[in-house]
Design a protein that fits this description.
six-stranded mixed beta sheet, alpha/beta, 11 strands, 59% helix, globular
Length: 565
């Protein structure tokens, strides 16, 4: 996951000296863009190219001075402070290792192993803030911990991505701690945006709910609250989609301005909500005219909803609430992680309002949690859980099939094309195919999914695991990179969630849609895999309509398990 907040990063990238950047990129291409040299790097053993890699990238391109030259700030084989182990390299500030560097050959595809080793070295160097890991083809950069990182494919790097590499790793930037400054500014900006956006989002929700109750008194307040949440979900998706290029830019603003103009100039009596309902319909089935080409994303979010579509909604509250949210840049300011924070905070409030509407006592622990400002699951927690559940299961299966880095190392070296080598190659391909088939059939369940934090992290993990397999096949067997829609397959076949709160399920669906939405591709229908219910009780006499029968809800999972017995 990226280290930096986009709007903050753009300011620092703009400040780079363009002439210095061009010179550095030209040198970089000389070393890493030549296909013949790339092939030699792929075939080189780790120890053969380590110093060459440090010299070509860090000295020639990024401006460091390598030991034993006077005034050096880059050294190889840097010893730990507490034991005899050594990092492959270190960037020095005075006598302190500011960065530890851990390198492997291109046959190493599991960066988790490099990461663990590198952070052991970092933890042995007092004052070390940064970690670099690389297999000579891909490079990762970390600040302080392994939760987030930036990654570059050195063999496919364009000038735009190189600018970020230069900003993070050039001697003039790193020794001045510019990356740490960007990260600190990013965290402050993310916190500020989250607070401000949630305040505007919450204000919109409260005013809209009050308006719906006043204008639709015949309907149950709890039902109206649920429809308030769904309407806001629609708006959030549209704002996100506009700024990510999935929809025409500023479409919400355009609807607002057109409605206002027709009302003010021509006394047009049609309500603003009527205009939005029409636009929601376009997003469900698609629409094309002289000025717009709107793809029908479907997925259920914009499908007809008889109750929602028939509500009376005040123009003023809808106009003011939507207009307030148009002020945010959902491309550079508001990422899916910020929205995840918003969603989790919103769930706390939903539970409180539902308790109030149903006359139940308020859970004071939730009130304190909200008061203390702890309203979302930290990313490092979900990463740790996924790594030690899904990740552990994947490693166990790889061990069972005998898939390891030694296999990859074998095929990184040219061998004679005889029967024995052909058989060995086929055997590994068969084992990889078996693993991929198993991976495609894995079932991951969150029985109390909330806003979908765990499911989102599991999605990220599985996508990376599939990509790792694809990169291996491309590197060692000459396969083209597989550009299949692996994220959709994971959503439809691997991830399942249940929650007692219907709004939690809807928000979890929205969070997964936002993470996987692509221009011109329909959203996955998640209503089957993400369900409302009491995951502990299947007896309607006890749990009422929330009773949840697992076999009835997910028969395909149980059929899959029976086949694998």
């Amino acid at each position: 996951m990226p280290l930096f907040q986009t709007s903050v990063l753009k300011k620092f990238l703009t400040g780079l000296n363009s002439d210095h950047l061009k010179v550095a990129f030209s040198k970089f291409q000389d070393h890493f863009a030549d296909p013949a040299k790339q092939e030699n790097i792929r075939n080189a053993k780790e120890e053969q190219y380590q110093e060459g890699f440090l010299r070509e990238l860090f000295v020639d391109v990024l401006g460091y001075t390598l030991n034993p030259s006077p005034g050096y700030n880059l050294t190889t084989e840097f010893k730990n402070q507490t034991d005899a182990k050594k990092a492959d390299g270190a960037i020095m500030a005075s006598d302190t290792a500011l960065v530890v560097i851990e390198l492997k050959g291109t046959n190493t595809t599991d960066f988790k192993k490099i990461e663990e080793q590198a952070f052991r070295y970092k933890n042995n160097q007092k004052g070390c803030r940064y970690v670099v890991t690389s297999n000579f083809e891909r490079l990762r950069f970390y600040i302080d911990d392994a939760t987030d990182y930036e990654e570059w494919d050195l063999f496919q790097l364009d000038e735009e991505r190189f600018a970020l590499l230069y900003l993070c790793l050039a001697q003039t930037q790193l020794l001045a701690n510019i990356p740490l400054t960007i990260k600190e500014n990013s965290l402050k900006q993310e916190e500020n945006v989250t607070k401000k956006l949630y305040a505007d989002y919450r204000e919109f929700k409260h005013r809209l709910f009050a308006d719906l109750r006043a204008r639709n008194p015949e309907l149950d307040p709890l039902l109206l609250f649920k429809k308030t949440q769904k309407l806001l979900d629609r708006f959030l998706f549209i704002f996100f989609a506009e700024d990510r290029g999935l929809l025409p830019p500023n479409s919400i603003h355009e609807v607002l301005m057109l409605w206002q103009e027709l009302r003010d100039k021509y006394d047009e009596p049609i309500s603003l909500y009527h205009r939005f309902r029409k636009y929601f319909g376009y997003l469900d089935i698609g629409h094309k005219d002289k000025t717009h080409d709107i793809f029908g994303y479907n997925g259920g979010l914009f499908a007809p909803d008889n109750v929602l579509d028939s509500l009376k909604v005040g123009d003023t509250v809808l106009f003011n609430g939507a207009m307030a949210l148009t002020n945010y840049d959902f491309e550079s300011e508001v990422d899916v992680n910020i929205l995840g924070h918003i969603f989790e905070h919103s769930l706390n409030e939903i539970e409180e309002i539902q308790a109030e509407l149903e006359g139940r006592p308020l859970d004071k622990s939730k009130t304190k949690r909200k008061k203390d400002g702890v309203f979302y699951t930290p990313k490092y927690i979900t990463q740790y859980i996924v790594e030690n559940t899904v990740g552990a299961l994947c490693r166990e299966k790889q061990d069972e099939l005998g898939i390891n880095e030694e296999n990859y190392a074998y095929f990184s070296i040219p061998h004679k094309n005889n029967k024995a080598e052909t058989a060995k190659r086929k055997n590994l391909i068969d084992r990889l195919n078996t693993y991929q088939t198993w991976l495609e059939g894995i079932t991951i369940l969150d029985p109390a999914c909330g806003s979908g934090a765990f499911l989102n992290q599991a999605l990220i993990f599985l996508i990376e695991e599939h990509n790792r397999l694809d990169r291996f096949r491309a590197s060692f067997f000459g396969d083209t990179l597989n550009l299949r829609d692996v994220d959709l397959a994971i959503l439809e076949h691997n991830l399942y969630g249940v929650d007692l709160n219907e709004e939690s399920v809807e928000i979890a669906q929205l969070s997964l849609w936002l993470r996987t939405a692509k221009k011109g591709r329909k959203l996955s229908a998640l209503s089957h895999n993400l369900r409302r219910g009491n995951s502990l009780i299947d007896d309607p006499a006890v749990a009422g309509d929330a009773a949840f029968n697992w076999q009835e809800a997910f028969p395909e999972v149980f059929a899959r398990d029976i086949e694998n017995l």
